[in-house]
Amino acid sequence: MIPDANDPRWKRVLTSDSDLSATSLATRILIARLRREVAAAPGALAGKIGELRDFVTKNSFAVADVAKF
């Protein structure tokens, strides 16, 4: 199940530098980019959460990655 956009895990994964080595390469690449963008423009966090959630919705392999956040 994909968490709601208001779930704190989305914010935590994009604002921390937690280890993502257990996630897929595609997910790690996306999160690395989104983290840089959020660091540069913190006001964009909600949009970046939406982008990450959309990625997970469109890519079934990424659903398992969410459980590792």
Number of domains: 1
**End-to-end distance:** 14 Å
Strand count, sense and closure of the main sheet?
none
Based on CA atoms alone, the radius of gyration comes out at 11 Å
* Unreliable residue stretches: none
Strand content: under 5%
The helix-strand sequence is: HHHH
Number of helices: 4
Structural class, from helix and strand content? mainly alpha
The total beta strand count reads: 0
Q: Which of globular, elongated, flat, extended, rod-shaped describes the shape? A: globular
Quote the average pLDDT. Answer: 96
Helical fraction equals 55-70%
SSE topology:
Blueprint: H1 8-15, H2 25-40, H3 45-58, H4 60-66
Helix pairs in contact: 3-4
Walkthrough of the structure:
The chain has 69 residues and is mostly helical. It has one domain. 65% of the residues lie in helices and 0% in strands. The chain is built from four helices and no strands. Helix 3 (45-58) packs across helix 4. The longest helix has 16 residues, at 25-40. It is globular and about 30 Å long. The mean pLDDT is 96.
Key terms:
mainly alpha, 0% strand
Summarize the structure.
The protein is an all-alpha fold and 69 residues long. The chain has one domain (8-66).
